[in-house]
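Hi support team,

I've been running sequence recovery on a batch of backbones for a student project. Most finish fine, but this one hangs at about 90% for roughly twenty minutes before it completes. I'm not sure whether the input is malformed or the queue is just slow. I've pasted the structure tokens below so you can try to reproduce it. Let me know if you need the job ID as well.

Thanks,
M.K.
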């Protein structure tokens, strides 16, 4: 299984990849994770590849190979579209975060991205930010999206919960467990 996690620096893509990796390691899969950072500290693109199966030799996902793209931001989903394989699935947080060229006025944020994605791919879009805030923290968008991802896999919910409990710092655990449940229930 090839999962590509994309977003903007500060959205928790790296924590999400660790939780996913820990979930499947617990089930005995071979796992490879590769993180590609842009200007992540300045709100730039961040992409993480998570590959797992009986035996995985490389963490890199090439164009047309992603079974699932988990996108924390709309434009990042659009940028990742070439990586989705035929019959793959995109799970997209409908949040829009202006990249630096838009902020400076050098470019405009593209319109109707979700419609364009839905025209060519199997897309589930949701307001993960609202669900994260309902769970108790806007920073839990990543775990809301993992809840949606979990419901779209054959991996038992209990394995996901064990990974969240084992990966998230204790002081943030309750919020993240609520966020996961809200995403899982929505899916």
């Amino acid at each position: 299984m090839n999962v590509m996690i994309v977003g903007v620096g500060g959205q928790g893509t790296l924590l999400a990849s660790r939780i996913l990796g820990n979930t499947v390691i617990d089930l005995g899969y071979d796992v490879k994770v590769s993180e590609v950072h842009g200007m992540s500290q300045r709100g730039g693109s961040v992409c993480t590849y998570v590959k797992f199966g009986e035996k995985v030799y490389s963490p890199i996902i090439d164009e047309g190979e992603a079974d699932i793209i988990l996108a924390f931001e709309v434009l990042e989903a659009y940028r990742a579209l070439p990586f989705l394989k035929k019959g793959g699935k995109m799970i997209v947080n409908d949040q829009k975060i202006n990249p630096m060229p838009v902020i400076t006025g050098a470019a405009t944020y593209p319109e109707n991205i979700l419609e364009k994605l839905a025209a060519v791919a199997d897309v589930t879009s949701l307001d993960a930010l609202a669900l994260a805030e309902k769970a108790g923290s806007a920073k839990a968008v990543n775990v809301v999206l993992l809840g949606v991802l979990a419901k779209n896999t054959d991996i038992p919910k209990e394995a996901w919960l064990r990974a969240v409990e084992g990966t998230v710092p204790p002081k943030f655990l309750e919020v993240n467990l609520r966020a996961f449940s809200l995403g899982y229930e929505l899916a």
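--
Follow-up from support: It reproduced on our side and the slowdown came from queue contention, not your input. The chain has a mean pLDDT of 94. No action needed from you.
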